[in-house]
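Journal club prep, shared notes

We agreed each person brings one worked example of a sequence with its structure written out as tokens. Mine is NACHT domain protein. I'm keeping it raw so we can talk through how to read the token line rather than staring at a rendered picture. Sequence first:
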Amino acid sequence: MINIDSVMSAIKPFAGSVGKQVIKNAQRNEAVIQVLKSLKLDPTQPPKDVDGVYAYALVEYGVYKPEPILKLFREKEIKNAFWQAYTSRNPLGFLKEVRKFLNWNTLGNEIREAGIEIQTELEEFGRVFIEVAQRTRSSEFQPYPDWNMDEYPEEFKSLIKEKNRFFCGREFVFDAFAQFLKDNPNGYFTVIADPGSGKSTIAAKYVFDHKSPCYFNIRAEGRNRPEQFLESIRQQLIKRYQLQNSEKADLPTLLEKVSKKLLSNERLVIVVDALDEVEQEPGENLLYLPTALPEQVYFLLTRRHYTKETKRLSVSPGVPMQELDLRANEYKDLSHDDVKEYIQLFLNEDYDLKKWIRDRNINDPTFIEQVAQKSENNFMYLRYILPGIARGFYNDLTLNQLPDGLEDCYQQDWVQMGMNTAPKELRVIILFILAEIGTPIPLEMIADIAEQDIYEVEEVLKELIEFLKPQEIDEEICYSIYHASFLDFLKKKRVLDSKRKLFKEVNQRIVDYWERQMA
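Then the structure, token by token:
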């Protein structure tokens, strides 16, 4: 049996630090071989027992790693937690145990002070261990687990990251939800707000902080169907809770299985954003959300305001339901404070925005208060107006002339970009193609429908980038409308300008395109 302290002593001279220059592979491999030989281990053939593979993997992983992370893997409690996670094929369980350990152990402070990203290191060690185990050809290590610690679905990673970049405030929302969890054994809690008021950001922040299973309905990307929601949540719950024989289970069955695995102090909170964007046949609950919930199971939902006919969320008697309407008078001042804090954060980060203010002899508090008033507590407004000011889009305007509210912001941008004039007609065509298709589509398809040269279309897409969301799908860059509120604005433009032939032409071009594809 290899003594783990001997392994640590052998690695220690090669310990590195975060930020140290990258070590060349050849140099690192040489150091690994040197350490293995000093421990009397064969550099070409690992031992076949669990302790031996753990020590061998620690050498291959640990050379030039910071000392605090090496200390972590030396701990017997961590080693046991790793093997338990390996045999149960539950890497997220290992991550959870390590976080618990670091919360009380002084090593936690060392790792945080060293700037070590713990999840990244646990993933790397696990993959090295599996590679070493495979070289032993021992059946004791089979089946090899999928050592993936992603806590968010791949499809929502960038969204969650982006929404949290300038997050601030909203404590009153989270406090209300925390109280709901405390007061109720299960239930539905819904945040209701206007478009652009930060519903998705609230959802993303909760997911980021609590690592909750989640689903973000995104109409502009065609990611808003019940079957897509169920498949995503199913895979998340199977992975997190190691559910067996659940590949085809419906949502009530999945929730029941999870509830039986929860400890007395644990809860399952599933976050679902933008119920109003769900595309589903009339009838049952949106996304077929269950009418009854097991104990310790909760949903945090967000949606726009609804009518009695569009609510579509009925529950059994006794299932708690609570709504928090961001438009309510009791929250207006709190939202206004959050908006001002957001503007201050942006102001601190952007030199060009500061210059715009200084050039007009405006002091920061005046700018913050007036823009906050014009925003009407709408964060999407700020997302457009603040970068627009910084880029010089509003250089000809005074502070008082800036648009009022999101709708006015879209309309002013529409006019200032010359969208109503013939020379800018291609911009209008492209936006309405994206609005009509409704899902992300590649450049070539846009150009084909628009009957324009690819280069010209690409240049227009660059000009419209603040309204668009480019993303890679099947190794192609595809484009869609960034936000549902702008999609709504475009569809309203169709009504307002219904006499213009251009909109009918866009629809006909789409029909012609599909006919060509079918031919």
